[in-house]
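ENTRY TYPE: paired fold submission
RECORD: A
CONTENT: sequence, then structure tokens
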Amino acid sequence: QVQQGESGGGLVQPGGSLRLSCTVPGLISNECDMDWYRHAAGKQREGVASISSDGTKKYARPHKGRFTFSKDKAMDTVYLQITSLKPEDTANYSCETVPGPPYYSSPQCNYRGQGTQVTVSS
């Protein structure tokens, strides 16, 4: 049975990389988009990237070049690779699903994850 949720966070040194994952059963069959957020202590939650059900990828401008999506359709899993990590990347990273193209109508696209903690420190 596929386990739902985020994983892949941890403690990493500056300059290192992590691959976060978010598994949501039904992600592909329900044609859901997936949005990624991060929430650092004392700061507002920030949208960092999104991947559409049709494969369109969008990255927040400050993170272009360091954040990269990939998708395992068979496992209903999206991976978010983050490279050249900086201490300011320290945050809880979470994923959410919303209805995607072409119909933007699937009510099953309503996952709200608890997130996985990323800590960048030497």
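RECORD: B
CONTENT: sequence, then structure tokens
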Amino acid sequence: QVQLVESGGGSVQAGGSLRLSCSASGYTSYPSCLGWFRQAPGKGRERVATSPRFGMFIYTDSVKGRFTAYRDDAENTLYLEMNSLKAEDTAMYYCAVDFRAGFACNARSDYHYWGQGTQVTVSS
């Protein structure tokens, strides 16, 4: 079965950097959607960066210019490079994939498979 395992979270001071990894296994076909989402305490899960199959990642406005998502297809790993971190970036970060056709890959509902999450805490 499809398994996604995130790592790389931690506690940093504002202005610092972290790189999250998402190791994927259990599938042979290329996902139709790949994405990073986050959920802060008391808030809903929001999109951070998403990409359709072989497309470019699209970022939510609050992280543009600071976060970069990319994939290593040979390693079946998805990454999220986060720079200039702010206190408002504090959240549980999740990676997600889906294999169905016909979705824009922008919404949480477009994704069926999720990792367990990795916590990012930014102190100001």
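NOTES ON RECORD B: The CA atoms of residues 78 and 105 lie 15 Å apart. The chain is about 0% helix and 50% strand.
STATUS: closed
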